[in-house]
Amino acid sequence: MKLITVILLFSVLYCVQSKNWLTDSARFLKEAGQGARDMWRAYRDMREANFKNSDKYFHARGNYDAARRGPGGAWAAKVISDGRESLQFGSSGKDSDADQFANEWGRSGKDPNHFRPRGLDPKY
C-alpha cells in the first residue's frame, strides 16, 4: 500500500507542471507498472535459466526493458534495482557494485547482451 501511495504522489508531482497533468500522471503510472512487470520477467527468467554468471545480463535486460517504457518505467527500474541491492545481505560490495553497473548500463539504453554469458539458452 505504501508503494502505491509513493508512486501516485511521485507521478502527480512529476507531471503537475504540465497542462495535461492528469493524462501525464496516468501515463507515468502505466509506464511504471509495465516497467515493474519487465523487471519481474527478467527476475523470473534468471531463476528459470539458473545459468552460472548470468545475473548481470538479467539485471541489464530488466532495466533496459523497463527504461524503454518511458520515464515511469525508468523510475520503477531504479527504485526496484536500488531496493533489491540494499536488501541483499551477505553479498560482497564488489558484486553489488557490478550489479549496479549492469543496472545503469541497461537503464541508459545500452545493449544488455554485453553481459550475456556464452551458452545461455537463446530464448532469453
Automatic annotation (TrEMBL):
Q: Which UniProt keywords apply?
A: Acute phase, HDL, Signal
- Position of the signal peptide: 1-18
Which InterPro entries did the record assign?
Answer: Serum_amyloid_A (IPR000096), Synovial_Prolif_Regulator (IPR052464)
Q: Which PROSITE patterns match?
A: SAA (PS00992)
Q: Biased composition, Basic and acidic residues: where in the chain?
A: 107-124
Q: Does the keyword NADP apply?
A: no
One annotated Gene Ontology cellular component of this protein: high-density lipoprotein particle
* Biological process, per Gene Ontology: acute-phase response
Residues of the region (Disordered) are 86-124
Q: According to the lineage, what is the superkingdom?
A: Eukaryota
Question: What is this protein's function?
Answer: Major acute phase reactant. Apolipoprotein of the HDL complex.
Q: Which family does it belong to?
A: Belongs to the SAA family.
Q: What is this protein called?
A: Serum amyloid A protein
Q: Which organism is it from?
A: Sarcophilus harrisii (Tasmanian devil)
